[in-house]
Each structure stands twice: as C-alpha cells, then as structure tokens.
Records
---
Amino acid sequence: MPAATTQPAVDHRFSIAPMMDCTDRHFRYLARLLSRHTLLYTEMVTTGALLHGDVARHLAFDAAEHPLALQVGGSDPAELAHAARLAEQWGYDEINLNIGCPSDRVQSGRFGACLMADPELVADGVAAMRAACRLPVTVKTRIGIDKDEDGERLLDFVGTVAAAGCDTFIVHARNAWLKGLSPKQNREVPPLRYDVVYRLKRERPDLTIAINGGIKTIDAARAHLAEVDGVMVGREAYSQPYFLARVDQDIFAAGEESSDRDAVLEAYLPYASRQRAAGVPLSRLVRPLFGLYQGCAGARRWRRHLSEHAPRRDADERVIVAAAREMRAAA
C-alpha cells in the first residue's frame, strides 16, 4: 500500500458520467460553457490504448475543461500505474477506474463490472495508481453483478478497495448483468436501487459516495444530495445539455447567472473555428449541439439543418449560424 499523499480536492457534488461516443472533448467544452463547476469525465480509455496507441489523441483537452477526470479501463496494476502517470503529466484533476461497464468486449479484456468479483485485484490496481501519481484515484462501480440482491457484495468490494487508498466511489445504482443484456439494456433493465447506495454512505461515512443512474432533473439531484455526497448524471446531460445551465446556482450555490442558449452557441463558435482549423471535421463539432435547443420552437429545423449540411466536405461554422437562423425563422 502506498504512503498517504496529500491529494488536491475535487468536488463531486455534480458530475457528468463518462460515456463512450458522447463525452469527447467537444461535448466537454460545450458543457463547460453551461456550467463552470460540474466535474467532467472523459470517455473511458483502455490502458492498452495508452500503452500502444496515440496518447495525444486520447488525452489532449482544452484547458477550459477543468475540473476534468480521466477514466481508464484495465486490470493490470503496472498498466494502470502507467495510465496514472500519464494522467498527471497531461494535467488531469483526477483519474477514475472503470468497474462498471458490462459489455462483452470489456469482460473479455478483464476489466469493467466483472472486476467486482475480484476486489483484491482492483485494490492492487488502485494501490499502484496511488503510488504512481499525486492525483485523486477514484472508482466508478455498480451495486452488484448479475442477481446480487442484498448489497453485501458492494459493501465488501468498497471495503477492500478503500483499504488500498481509494476514498471516493461513484456508484451506478443498478446491478450489471454480465450475460444476456447489451450495454444499453444494462442501463435500463436492471432495477434502480438507490437504497443500496444510501446504505453504503450510512455504513461508510468516511468515504465520498456519489450516485449515478436514472437522474434526469436538478430537483432529483438535490434530493439525492440529502443522502449522499454527489450526483453523476449521464444521458440526460448529453441529449439535453441546457439541463446544465441551472447546476452552478442550484447545486453549487455559486451565484453566477445562467447563460441563455444563444449566448452559449455564440461562445462555442470560436472554439469550433479553432478546431476546424486544426483538422477536426465540422460533423464532429456539431454533434454536441444537436440537443442544445431541445424543447424550443424550431428545434427540429435546427437539427435537420445540422444533419444535412455539417457532413459536407467544405462545411464550416457558417453552417451552425445558418441552422440557428433557420430555427428562428421556423419559430
């Protein structure tokens, strides 16, 4: 076990879940325009990708994205230690270990939710990461695997991993069914059991416990914060990013006024221009924008214009401006 280190504080009161093909750097930049205090997470990056792939492609981010955590998937302690060193070198605020993903591909690589059955191995990985960097090392997990019903596996798992130096756990309040369900079904079919996460916090008040799963409103987030230390929101933040506009005031009591959608879009345009000049296609840059006007008059016209025009080879940020103009005309 590593010697205790002084780790910089990361506020987990409200965060956005790591989501494959969603929480890329362009979505994170948009999210930061909507909330200054929300903790952002990368998509999961495997330790293999960091050992053998293009490290810059996986780890580069805009300084505006802070506070930002890197989520990694893996089980080999030496490889996890390497990932932790890279996270610190690249300037992340936290490194998070994925013990929640249930996909077959992840299981075949022996990481993700299946590692709940091997808490000692996870503890070894956490200890190696802690020894390799000064960043906070956190774990995102499920409440159990397959048909666990009583929550005892979660308590035992957290106890073992906490002893290795992890003091923050983000818990998706569903079991992971390792056979018979797709990752999408695993986000919907296993029942939500918030009481299991609440019990974990009651029994381990010394730990920081954040809850994840099925949280779709700021009011629901505030209700959970009466029981646990933090809330992590997933698909709702991606499909309706303006959801984040209330977070700083209502969760962090920060006092800043929320930006309206048009102001957020105006602030995103220079970023899109810089990224396009660096070779990023406009079609990737507009993906986070599709839901920005969700619920507004003309939103369908907005999405359709982006869908039709952004993939063109010569498309630039004028497509975004034109889409906004069409939306207002339709409204």
---
Amino acid sequence: MSPTVASPPHRLRMRTWAWLVVLTAGWSPLEAKLKIVTTTTDLASIAQEITQDLADVTAIAKGFQDPHFVDPKPSFLVQLQRADMFVMVGMDLERAWAFDLLTNSRNAKIQPAGPGHVDASVGIARLQVPTAADRTMGDIHAFGNPHYWLDPANGAIIAGNITAGLQRIDPANASTYQKNLDAFTAKLEDAVARWTRQAAPLVGLPVVVYHDSWPYFVQRFGLDVVAFVEPKPGIPPSGRYIAELSETMKTRHIGVLVMTSFYDDKTAQLISRQSGAKEVTLAQSVGGVPAALDYFSLFDNNLALLLDAAGK
C-alpha cells in the first residue's frame, strides 16, 4: 500500500478556492436582505409592512423610550455603517442624537443627500409650527410638532416616503414595494374608518395631557385638551401649578388625565388623587406598552384605554 502523501500547499489553496466558487455560485449581494435602520419603532413597523421578507428592519429608539433623547451606543453606529436605508421622523425630533450618529457612520448611502436617507415627514400637514421661538417658550420645535404618526391617516404618507426610498435603492423590487404599499394603504384606510366610528364617544371629551405630544391624535379623534401638566413643553410643574390645575379639573369635572408610558407618573398620580380624575397611560409608539405590538394595535390599544377611562 502506498504511503499517504500530503497535498502541496498550493493545491490546498486551489481546492479551497474551488469549493468557495461552488458554494457561492449563483449568489449575488443583491439577493441578500436589505438592512433598514429607523429612529423609532413606528417607522420600523410601517417599513416592515412595505418590505415584508425583503429586509431586516431595526429601530434605534425603543417604544418605551423618549425618542427626543437617546444615548448613542457603539452598536447603533455599527448598525448605521451596515445600513442600506435610514428612516427618521424628522422635524427636529431626533436632533439631539441622530445626525451625530449619521456623520460618524461615514456611510454615504444614508447621509441626508444619499439615496438611502428617508425623512418620513415629507408631505405631512404640520401642526403647531411656531412663528417665533425662544428658550422661554419651553422645548418647542421650529418645524412644528413632530408627533405626526399619532394621526393614523399620516401612516399612509409615511409609508409612501419609505416606499420611494426603497424603490431608489432597490429598483429591481420596485413593483413589489408598490404592491405592498397599496395593500398597507387599503388596510389602513379601513382601520381609520373603524377607529373613527369607535372614537365617536370621545369627541369633545375634556382631558388633561402631561406633555404636548398628542395634537395629531387629538385632531383626528376630536378630544378637547383643556390643559397640560407641563406648564410649557419640557418644563416641570411647580407645586402651586399642580394645586391650581387639580382644582380646575375638579371644578370643570375633567375626569381623564393622559400620560405617556415613558414619563415618570408621580406628578400625574398626585394630580389624579387631588382632582379625582382617572389617569390613563397611552403608548406614544409601538412597543410603548405590551399591547401595542405594531402600528395598528397601537391605536387599538390607545382608543380602548381612553374609552374605558371615560366610561364610554
């Protein structure tokens, strides 16, 4: 029997390359899933509706976090370096952190002028655009109130902006994205009609809101915001202000106090005890509470909680 003879190193290298050729035959980077990074979970939920199984979608801010203030992490930078598309709320919502992450990612595709950059606010009818702004007015946004996704009808505009971005970076699947957009829009139109009927008992309902992040929701469903727990956006209330607000709520029989899940509710609990109003904690974003699993259940959950708090 002949002794075993080791193959020369160059033959091993050739065999290795041969196997790599076999294993990667027919594979193209274009067939890999797109990597989409969004700033919020609401944008991620809508992006997933449009991409279905063609993309992996990741949100930076979690639904139980205040998206105005996100601590940048190295992992976020890694995500952006690998991203094919970046979707942001815009209107200054993420001004404290998003653009620094974008710049440091050095990913040309997702920079503001790049094909993979999507500002989801394009085409939104903006509310509360100030004619002037200074620090004495509190934490206001120069381009208007940025919480526009809380009017579910704006979800169609957001989806349209995301679809346009997808068609720029992945034209081969443009028709699929359009088909998914059409399906999402039809589903959303049906849901908005259902939610509007469901919310009919809330029209004109006087409420107090902790922070002024609900004007689009209020406009859509007809609630009457009488006052805010924050005397100015981002400014905590004084003890005197809390006492006066509680008395006003008792006098005017305002029975609902709306909180957002990521704010400390100690002040709201105090006002609730003093005024007799029922505190209801709503999800501002997908994942803000366990029941808000996606963009549709976000509104299902919030409307159900409001109707229950109002005794409707």
